[in-house]
Structures
1.
Amino acid sequence: MMKDLYKAARRLDQVQFSPVRKVLERANELAAEGRDILHVEIGEPDFDTPSDIVEATVQALCVGKKTHYPPNRGVLRLRNAISDMLKEQYQAEYDGASEILVTCGAAEAIFDTITALTGDGDEVIVMTPAYMNYENCIRMAGAECVKVELSESDGYQVNKSVLAAAVTKRTRMIVLTNPNNPTGTVMNRESLQKIAAVAKAHDLIVLSDEIYAAMHYGVEYVSFASLPGMKERTILVSGFSKCFAMTGWRIGYVACDVRFYSPILKVHQYATNCIPTFIQEGLADGMKTEKTAMDVKAMVLTFDERRRMVLEMLSQVPGVTCSGADGAFYIFVNVSGTGLDGTEFAERLLEEHGVALVPGAAFGESCQNCVRISYGMSIDVLDQALQRIREFTRTLCK
Ligand SMILES: Cc1ncc(COP(=O)(O)O)c(C=O)c1O
């Protein structure tokens, strides 16, 4: 029998490319044809990285010549700075020397954690709507992804009996994202306590993705790791892509109880080994300055202004509803009242009105009726995009 030279490994059978890519590729094709395309699909802040971080990195590279291998775990000064920040801002206590691992973005932190701690025969509960990396990493690890749907009518908060009902003897981990991508929901203390109770009752690990922790608007933010008794079972993954507008720098981290550390470090060693030394050194210096804190504060205030404007404009759009939206920089809009599902809505909006957004199906089968709007771009772009959305829905809801 002929061998198939190009066949992929079997464990990739169930792994998908990101549907966000599809939208971006089509939007770029249309733009190349000369169409005026407005991008509200992109999950990154349009701000510059705080200048103190940039300058400290340039110094580290040019003056300090920090161009050789750093420790696998990350530069100790940076791990200590992360530990201090987690303690001061989120009351989460992780030791810099033994419980923080610097990774290539939060994406690697997620991959390392899931690969290190789950595998054949394990089930991992993911609350949806959810960022697509979890499900695909779980599949690559050979484990099974069990989805628990959070509903728009509950404001995407947790229903304890629904969560508990998804637990079986094989459940190993629960994944949560707070604030959430794509809904923008900040989980309230009560929701987190419900997750904690289920995790404790069934002795489960919790992967808490807190990459949007700096972005919450007028609501209390609680880190899952700060809840009593949770630090020892929580793997906190986060990074600097969003809070410092550093998406292209590729730097994130895992914070976990020392007993989880070794397996995660093993995966990291063979995945990326370590993150560029000068970036770690620059970040260690630049992240702590008063100017950086002010830059972040200004960015978050601007996001809040945009958020309020988009919500106000959406309230005038027929056929749509939304819930949550008090964190991150996303609004998850249910478009079922227009007569279209999220995928048809997104395709027609792009083709007919030149607005690119992400269909909800990218975040779980239960999200077919939704689309995600990002407000990571200027108020001008958002204003025009929302006007086009309003025109489009008026034609649908006549
Ligand atoms: C919830 C969530 N986690 C992790 C990531 C990955 O972040 P990073 O750029 O640090 O890899 C993203 C990026 O969009 C995200 O939305």
2.
Amino acid sequence: MTAFDAHRPPAAEDLDTCVHCGFCLPTCPTYVLWGEEMDSPRGRIVLMDAALREADVLSDAMVTHWDRCLGCMACVTACPSGVRYDRLLEDTRPQVERNHPRTRRERLARRAAFATLTRPDRLRVLAPLAGAAARLGARRLGRALSDSSRLGAVLRLTPERHGRARVPSLTPARGEMRGRAGLLLGCVQRTFFADVNAATADVLAAEGWDVVALDRPRCCGALMLHAGAEPEALALARELVAAAEDCDVVVANAAGCGSALRDYGRLLDDERAAAFSAKVRDATELLAADKPRSPRGRTELRVAYHDACHLAHAQGVRAEPRALLAQIPGVELVEPDEWELCCGSAGLYNVLQPEAAAALGRRKAANLLATGADVIAAANPGCALQLQTYLEEAGRPLPIVHPLELVRASIGA
Ligand code: SF4
Ligand code: SF4
């Protein structure tokens, strides 16, 4: 008996790796918040096991506990037995979307998010309206609504600014060329954080990479993939694999996107996709791998580096962004407590599960503020919006930048 269909259910051998030791519990944000066994990695694995081997339907309770998971993968980092919770969740979520009837309200919320956030053409129209709404007090109004209100969450997160920089289709390498780097422009990233893309292209070119802007497809599918909307995500993945065929490396500067790109090989299960995934690097990882060519100018700044979960836990990239920032003379890196705990952003999580996301956002903001930093460096657009929201709520809206923006400023590119 099984409640999953035959299309890639979570693998029994992955489930069996969990020895229920509980080492992952203190790093799981939902367990930390609520202390509920079924809202821990171990509990969610037990539910997956029950769905695979004992149940004939996916119950509301199972889906509720899986939905409450942020997909932050802190449990993967913490687990001494090597449990691949990342694969388990990635296989469970599409099963839920196929085999569990969601309410009309839930379906609409997801559809509305995908129809806007993954569409740069629509975001470009909405961005100035969002900016105007923010200036008129949308974020303040959001803070006045309850933490559990999804409308309140959307209002609290309303971005005031959007980037205007454009990345040319080719930014030629300076000096001897190291290779051809395809830079993923993304969807939210290219609209609200276009300056981050421009800084990434400038720094890569200054360090010897020919930078090709991967402006198609419109989105890499990460947001959909992490929410279980697999068919839509994989259609975009196939397009991106084809678009980057002639690149030596594929560069992501948004943690959630990079993590999805590395999974294409397994999900599409073909050689081209596997070759693509093998070429994926986070921008900080690619740059930290080589001796820097451009001299870094002095920048006196106390910087708190915020680990985005999809970079630190899902891709294992922690040392590289720190190494890159440490190359800037005058930069003092400071470390917040509870680095491993998610800030609550997690793709659509801060809108779909606003109460837990708000609690985590406040906790993260307090830890970052306690460092006494002048600026926060974060390599994911979702984290940047979430941190901005809760730093502002705390009355201390520190600047939040991508590490590559600091590097660009230091080399004057
Ligand atoms: S996921 Fe890993 S750390 Fe957590 S209970 Fe299972 S074996 Fe232990
Ligand atoms: S992915 Fe994050 S929220 Fe989900 S079980 Fe693992 S640690 Fe907990």
